[in-house]
Amino acid sequence: MRRIAMTGAAGRVGTLVRPFLRQHVEHLRLIDVHEPADLAENESFVGADLSKLDEATAALAGIEGVVHLAGLAGGVDMNAILQANVLGTYNVYEAARINEVERVVYASSNHATGFYPRGQIISPLDPMRPDSPYGLSKCWGELVAGLYYDTSGIRTLSIRIGNAGTYPNSERSIAIWISARDLAQLVRIGFSHPSIAATVVYGVSDTDEKWWDNGLAARLGYQPQDRPRDHAHIEDGAEGAVARAFQGGGFCEFNHDGTIRMRDGEGLAKNPETVS
Fold this sequence. Notes:
It is globular, with a radius of gyration of 18 Å. By secondary structure, it is an alpha/beta fold. It has a single domain, classed as 3-Layer(aba) Sandwich (Rossmann fold). The protein has eight helices and nine strands. The strands form two sheets. A seven-stranded parallel β-sheet has the order 3-2-1-4-5-6-7, with helices on both faces. A two-stranded antiparallel ribbon has the order 8-9.
């Protein structure tokens, strides 16, 4: 694809990924409420509030594909999440339909499945288990992607991003970190692979700590180039018992009553363990 848009382009992930993506496209349109710094020759900026359908529609005019990164990254304010992550994502897809955009790469999150225990390897075929209001909004986005493929033929690669920080800063992030260039590789696959429909993969670099079966990403051609432990700078302290138990880490602690519950077949505990 030649003309690509990136929503949330001024954010942390957009800023990291842009240099690796713009060299592969003719033009990269940056969409945000704030103008990103240091625009390249083949980049342009469009200011838009994606919670407003008319602004989203105008921003995607003449575009072939969208990297949808915009939204609140975390947080527990459900009203804000509804505006930014839920309504904003719906409007991006509706604007894509109106503009006949062919493909979307959706920045989903590992927090869509954050309540799986760390001892269990899961795949995108396992049921969603969101760990927070933020994770719940990412489940919504994946379902919106499926709806718009079934009704309009818009193809989406939903990437359940692990940790897309500059470097892994904890043992948990070492297990789930993805470098900017590996994430950009997945984005390019989302725009080019003929088998993409409403497809979900995990966004993780070449880690030894296998929490996710990412075989589908490999079959699509994903070959991560970076190893998280090679880039690690451990900064944070010890996790609480609830955070340690689940893949979502600290996100799982929101409104949690302290009782660690395992679902049928997970085998970590027959009876709930009360955390003091």
